[in-house]
């Protein structure tokens, strides 16, 4: 059986329909990201996927090169305060901090406002590109192979942190006008440490079985941990790092 031949007009119409469909899908995906950027307050109410640090993952002596990009490799180390400005970009939040002190690194100074990428992504069942294929709920979860998978929580407005950073790298072929200066957190449970951790150990939260948190709830904590042993390990290591960078 021979298939009917299509006229040039029909072929053109089909191509236009395919292009229009692709544009519609692209705009829908972009529109979803834009919506989060314009209504960041709505994100505060989203369910937050809980990942908690264990005593083993929080023990720096047990980590090796396969665990990720550690704080010892960070080229920029600063004390900085989150000013509350946050927007959603692709699979990350771009959050602004004000530099209070420079411990190590060039190109940043006291008083500078720099943008830090928090490795948390919004999963949305209406947006296949968000990675929500296994869930029918809209929420926030750690990006793959990131510090937040160790229990690191979102930055809290007004809190001063010790931050271990590296400038975001872009592929050479990306045009300069499409590059935005930002800094990535080390892939390490101690990539950002609240400077007053010792005085507020209640913010190192032992997660209960079946506990549920929103994005806003999670940001009230400095770290999510599995048990008291992990909490003790985290607090003591934070104190060591803070004392070592004074």
Which fold does the CATH topology of the largest domain refer to? Answer: OB fold (Dihydrolipoamide Acetyltransferase, E2P)
CATH architecture of the largest domain: Beta Barrel
Rg over alpha carbons: 22 Å
Rough outline: globular
What is the class of the largest domain in the CATH system? Mainly Beta
What order do the helices and strands follow?
A: HHEEEEEEEEEEEHEH
Which stretches are poorly predicted, pLDDT < 50 over at least 5 residues?
A: 10-34, 130-134
Description:
The protein is an alpha+beta fold and about 250 residues long. The chain folds into 2 domains: about 10-40; about 40-170 and about 180-245, OB fold (Dihydrolipoamide Acetyltransferase, E2P), CATH 2.40.50. Helices cover about 25% and strands about 25% of the residues. It is built from 4 helices and 12 strands; from the N terminus they run ααβββββββββββαβα. The protein has helices at about 10-40, 40-45, 215-220, 230-245, and strands at about 45-50, 75-90, 90-105, 115-120, 120-125, 140, 160-165, 185, 190-195, 205, 215, 225. The strands form 4 sheets. The chain has a 5-stranded mixed barrel with strand order 2-3-4-8-7. The longest helix has about 30 residues, at about 10-40.
């Amino acid at each position: 059986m021979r298939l009917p031949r299509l006229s040039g007009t029909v072929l053109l119409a089909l191509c236009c329909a395919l292009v229009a469909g692709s544009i519609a899908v692209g705009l829908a995906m972009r529109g979803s990201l834009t919506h989060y950027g314009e209504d960041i307050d709505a994100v505060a109410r989203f369910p937050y996927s809980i990942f908690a640090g264990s005593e083993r993952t929080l023990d720096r002596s047990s980590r090796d090169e396969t665990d990720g990009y550690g704080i010892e490799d960070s080229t920029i180390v600063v004390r900085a305060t989150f000013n509350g400005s946050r927007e959603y970009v692709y699979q990350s939040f771009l959050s602004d901090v004000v530099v209070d002190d420079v411990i190590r690194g060039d190109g940043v100074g006291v008083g500078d406002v720099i943008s830090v990428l928090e490795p948390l992504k919004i999963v949305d069942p209406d947006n296949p590109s968000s990675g929500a294929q296994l869930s029918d709920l809209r929420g926030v979860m750690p990006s793959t192979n990131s510090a937040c998978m160790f229990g690191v929580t979102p930055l809290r407005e007004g809190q001063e942190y010790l931050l271990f950073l590296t400038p975001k790298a872009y592929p050479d072929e990306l045009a300069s006008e499409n590059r935005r200066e930002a800094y990535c957190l080390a892939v390490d449970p101690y990539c950002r440490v609240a400077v007053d951790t010792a005085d507020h150990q209640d913010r190192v939260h032992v997660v209960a079985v079946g506990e549920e948190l929103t994005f806003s709830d999670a940001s009230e904590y400095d770290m999510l941990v599995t048990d008291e042993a992990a909490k003790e390990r985290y607090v003591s290591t934070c104190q060591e790092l803070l004392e070592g960078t004074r």
